[in-house]
Amino acid sequence: MSDKSNSKPEYKPVTVEKAIPNTYDLGNLATFDPNPMDNTQLTNKNEQEKEQYITSITRDNVQLLINQLLSLPVKTTTDNVDSTSTGQSSSITLLRLPDSLTILPREKSLPKEKPLTKWQEFAKRKGIKAKEKSGKLVYNEETGEWVPKWGYKGKNKDLDQQWLVEVDEKVKNTEDELIDPRTLKRAERKKLIKKNELQHKRNLKNAANGISK
């Protein structure tokens, strides 16, 4: 009498024969089976038999897809990745997928065009052409390096680094004459940033309300 508890489970073969070969789009992890399905099985009133038939075809197609994937170039990471859950380390094996062949539809709709700002609408009416954008970097002759025009370590902040600063003619004999010009420049930049942010909010509000002035 054989002991069924010690018998090994039966595995399906890894080789699958099809009357018409499948086509593959490995970039999208997809396979396409052109073989016609058995209509009698699909219309079988026995739901269990019908489900088994569909599962069998699905299993064969997945096996064919895996066989194709395993034929792709394989890359194994040299560094081990620590697993916090198991406390063990394991390397990662990666498959290099080719470019996808099937053009899939967009997940989301096309982005809407941004509404014109008041200045853009004015320039459009007057036929004013937009200025060509210049580069973001300028050459600093003192340091011999290319630096940003604005922002962090920007050229516009050169004044902050000067040990000697000339007082602007505009503030002479005014209450601002004794104020450090570097402090004034920083305050002007902050004021300009707030002004631009406020104008941006107004533009968005006007665009949302359909107001054009």
Short description:
Keywords: Nucleus, Ribosome biogenesis. The chain is α+β, with helices and mostly antiparallel strands and 213 residues long.
How many E strands? Answer: 8
Mean pLDDT, as a whole number? 79
> Numbering strands along the chain, what is their spatial order in the largest sheet?
1-2
Strand composition percent: 5-15%
Which residues sit in consecutive blocks of at least 5 with pLDDT less than 50?
none
Distance between the termini: 95 Å
Instruction: Report the order of strands and helices.
Output: EEHHEEEEHEEH
Largest sheet: 2 strands, antiparallel
Count of individual helical segments: 4
Q: How would the global form be characterised?
A: elongated
How many discrete structural domains?
Answer: 2
Provide the gyration radius in Å: 35 Å
Report on this model:
A hairpin with a 4-residue loop joins β1 and β2. The radius of gyration is 35 Å and the shape is elongated. The protein is of the alpha+beta class and 213 residues long. The chain has four helices and eight strands; from the N terminus they run ββααββββαββα. The longest helix has 29 residues, at 181-209. The mean pLDDT is 79. The chain has two domains: 10-95, no CATH class; 118-209, no CATH class. A two-stranded antiparallel sheet has the order 1-2. The protein has a two-stranded antiparallel ribbon with strand order 3-6. Helices cover 31% and strands 11% of the residues. It has helices spanning 39-42, 47-69, 118-126, 181-209; strands at 23-25, 30-32, 74-76, 81-82, 89-90, 93-95, 137-140, 145-148.
